[in-house]
Amino acid sequence: MKKLLSSVLLASVSFAGMAQSLDRMQWFNEPAQWEINGNTLMMDVTPQTDYWRISHYGFTVDDAPFLYTLRGGEFEVKVRISGDYRTRFDQSGLMLRIDRENYIKAGIEFVDGKYNLSTVVTHHTSDWSIIPLDEPVEYVWIKAVRRLDAVEIFYSFDDKEYTMMRNAWLQDNCPVMVGMMAACPDGTGFTAMFEDFSIRHLPDLRRLQWLEKNGGN
């Protein structure tokens, strides 16, 4: 059984080398202008768009560009993001979405002239947390790890050392739309770039624990 468990883990490593093809992903709120070149997505972010539900502001919007693929189970996803943010609340990053009432978005958000690492978690109503950066950055890596009913969000400036920025609940055992989003709630639009987007399958944690307990010799 130990050999079987090792085979499962080795299989997950082999799947890790398979990059997600961007041209096979789908648009939710497709922007007017966008381009895919290899594993890079460029988009002109649609003005006056966002993802938010009810809390604090009293309105609901669900109309920003989002390029996604559907994933079940447990996984790790990451991407390098950059943009020419200009107006309050200009933002880009990753999004994990079950439906219009349940989603997580995380990335860079431009607020009051500063770059912020930003996470919005929505379960019927939205909440918002930020980590202000001392100075603008050319790009940042955002990574999300979905394990059981939790999603851990990390950031990095070099794709080597990652720091957690949020741990949030998300319903497990259901398909998730996962991909790249950008929004421009107040401005006239900006250009966002996403590079080296990848998804790595993670073996189901409950099954691995079951195998360990019930493997025998």
Structure in words:
With 217 residues, this protein is mainly beta. It has two helices and 16 strands. The chain starts with a helix and ends with a helix.
| Run of helices and strands | HEEEEEEEEEEEEEEEEH
CATH architecture label name:
Sandwich
Radius of gyration: 18 Å
Distance between the termini: 6 Å
Spatial strand sequence of the major β-sheet: 1-6-15-8-9-10-11
Biggest sheet character: 7 strands, antiparallel
Unreliable spans are 1-17
Q: Kindly report the CATH topology.
A: Jelly Rolls
Under CATH at level 1, the class stands as Mainly Beta
* Beta-strand share of residues: over 45%
Number of helices: 2
- The number of strands is 16
Core attributes:
mainly beta; Jelly Rolls; 7-stranded antiparallel beta sheet; 16 strands; 12% helix; disordered N terminus
Topology (elements, then pairings):
Layout: H1 2-16, E1 26-28, E2 33-37, E3 40-44, E4 51-53, E5 60-62, E6 66-71, E7 74-83, E8 91-99, E9 102-111, E10 114-123, E11 125-132, E12 140-147, E13 150-156, E14 163-169, E15 176-183, E16 191-202, H2 205-214
Antiparallel strand pairs: 1-6, 2-3, 3-16, 4-5, 6-15, 7-12, 7-16, 8-9, 8-15, 9-10, 10-11, 12-13, 13-14
Summed up, what is this model?
By secondary structure, the protein is mainly beta. The protein has helices spanning 2-16, 205-214, and strands at residues 26-28, 33-37, 40-44, 51-53, 60-62, 66-71, 74-83, 91-99, 102-111, 114-123, 125-132, 140-147, 150-156, 163-169, 176-183, 191-202.
